[in-house]
């Protein structure tokens, strides 16, 4: 029942059986705003100028005109329809789970934020299924991304001002189907365990003191930023036998993880991959399809995760180590297919 032939002040639109009636801003004094109104001043401000529920007063009129509003809506919601804020909120409540917190509706949007440092668990299947429905939108970070307290993990949004409740019920159905099947919400954050690592730094140039060690501080900082520690660091020359012995020493100490740095590439003095294998490691992969970090080795030595860390981990903030370390800390068993999948989207720097 769109009435475009009527004067603007009387114009109304019907969505499902709800009605949106347009009122000229000059006639809107005393009226309650039906939704948040946004102002954008590039480089200065983007946000809510007026909040849903605000009662319009005379001095609002020039401000409303400044943001391009000549008319405001009066909403008469029909049974079975939802206001954008309520739709976005119900979606977020249905989707958000462990270690997430849901924000207040804002301009038809609700954010789901992380409460902890952890690994985002995002079901791509659920996200795509929801975005196929139309009229509603769900944007998320990538699955397995490290998030910090307060980081956004997802945001829900209603596209029109009024959304059929059926759409939201379908979101709720998809979310609860996922929860029943996987025992976790489709959008959640998995905590990281605190692990103690043994760190072996190889390289004759470092062992003999020709150059100062730069790997130790870098690896310690990476672990500490995720709540773990390097419990002990030791040094070895580029000698396979010594490296094997040092790895076995760490194993005996009962550390949760063993890290070996340097000597991971193609030179004759690069003894680390051979030594890790000789120590008895079940190698999941030597080589990862990600740059930087392509020469990384990952395996398990009697169940203990062991990494061979190539040179770039020393100086690059985001390498294959920064992808795999949080997976290990989250308690995942890393398999070959996890490594295979790192190549798609894995080019960060070369
Ligand atoms: N021809 C090829 N060259 C390179 C390849 C390749 O496949 N073919 N791979 C490249 C990649 S990727 C990496 S990463 C680097 C280095 O790999 P390595 O792990 O073998 O590193 P190193 O040879 O042991 O050392 C390289 C460089 O870094 C210095 N270093 C090592 N450890 C320390 C330390 N603890 N503190 C300070 N500095 C350290 C070392 O002295 C060397 O200057 O290889 C590429 N090349
Ligand atoms: O393993 Mo290299 O570290 O890709 O740069």
Automatic annotation (TrEMBL):
<dbReference type="InterPro" id="IPR001453">
    <property type="entry name" value="MoaB/Mog_dom"/>
</dbReference>
<feature type="domain" description="MoaB/Mog">
    <location>
        <begin position="198"/>
        <end position="330"/>
    </location>
</feature>
<protein>
    <recommendedName>
        <fullName>Molybdopterin molybdenumtransferase</fullName>
        <ecNumber>2.10.1.1</ecNumber>
    </recommendedName>
</protein>
<dbReference type="Pfam" id="PF00994">
    <property type="entry name" value="MoCF_biosynth"/>
</dbReference>
<keyword id="KW-0500">Molybdenum</keyword>
<dbReference type="GO" id="GO:0061599">
    <property type="term" value="F:molybdopterin molybdotransferase activity"/>
</dbReference>
<dbReference type="InterPro" id="IPR038987">
    <property type="entry name" value="MoeA-like"/>
</dbReference>
<keyword id="KW-0808">Transferase</keyword>
<comment type="pathway">
    <text>Cofactor biosynthesis; molybdopterin biosynthesis.</text>
</comment>
<keyword id="KW-0479">Metal-binding</keyword>
<keyword id="KW-0460">Magnesium</keyword>
<comment type="function">
    <text>Catalyzes the insertion of molybdate into adenylated molybdopterin with the concomitant release of AMP.</text>
</comment>
<comment type="similarity">
    <text>Belongs to the MoeA family.</text>
</comment>
<dbReference type="GO" id="GO:0005829">
    <property type="term" value="C:cytosol"/>
</dbReference>
<dbReference type="GO" id="GO:0006777">
    <property type="term" value="P:Mo-molybdopterin cofactor biosynthetic process"/>
</dbReference>
<dbReference type="InterPro" id="IPR036425">
    <property type="entry name" value="MoaB/Mog-like_dom_sf"/>
</dbReference>
<keyword id="KW-0501">Molybdenum cofactor biosynthesis</keyword>
<dbReference type="GO" id="GO:0046872">
    <property type="term" value="F:metal ion binding"/>
</dbReference>
């Amino acid at each position: 029942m769109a009435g475009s032939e009527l004067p603007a002040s009387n114009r109304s639109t019907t969505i499902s059986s709800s009605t949106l009636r347009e009122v000229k801003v000059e006639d809107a004094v005393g009226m309650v705003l039906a939704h948040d109104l946004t102002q954008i001043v590039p480089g200065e401000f983007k946000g809510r100028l007026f909040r849903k529920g605000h009662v319009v007063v005379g001095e609002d009129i020039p401000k409303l005109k400044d943001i391009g509003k000549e008319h405001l809506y009066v909403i008469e919601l029909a049974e079975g329809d939802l206001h954008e804020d309520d739709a976005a909120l119900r979606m977020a409540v249905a989707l958000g789970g462990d270690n997430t917190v849901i924000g207040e509706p804002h301009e038809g949007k609700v954010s789901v934020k992380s409460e902890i440092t952890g690994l985002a668990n995002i079901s791509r299947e659920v996200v795509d299924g929801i975005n196929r429905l139309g009229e509603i939108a769900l944007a998320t970070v990538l699955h397995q991304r490290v998030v910090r307290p307060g980081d956004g993990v997802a945001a829900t949004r209603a596209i029109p001002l009024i959304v059929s409740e059926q759409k939201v019920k379908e979101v709720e159905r998809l979310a609860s189907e996922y929860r029943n099947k996987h025992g976790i919400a489709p959008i959640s954050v998995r905590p990281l365990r605190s692990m103690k690592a043994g760190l072996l730094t190889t390289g004759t140039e470092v062992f003999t003191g020709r150059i100062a060690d730069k790997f130790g501080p870098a690896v310690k900082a990476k672990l500490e930023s995720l709540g773990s520690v390097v419990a002990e660091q030791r040094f070895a020359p580029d000698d396979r036998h010594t490296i094997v012995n040092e790895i076995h020493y760490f194993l005996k100490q009962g550390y949760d993880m063993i890290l070996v740095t340097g000597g991971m590439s193609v030179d004759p003095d690069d003894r680390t991959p051979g030594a890790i294998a000789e120590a008895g490691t079940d190698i999941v992969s030597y080589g990862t399809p990600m740059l930087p970090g392509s020469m990384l080795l990952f395996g398990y030595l009697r169940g203990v995760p062991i990494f061979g860390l190539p040179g770039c981990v020393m100086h690059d903030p985001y390498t294959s180590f920064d992808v795999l370390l949080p997976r290990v800390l989250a308690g995942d068993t890393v398999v070959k297919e996890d490594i295979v999948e790192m190549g798609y989207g894995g080019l960060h720097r070369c």
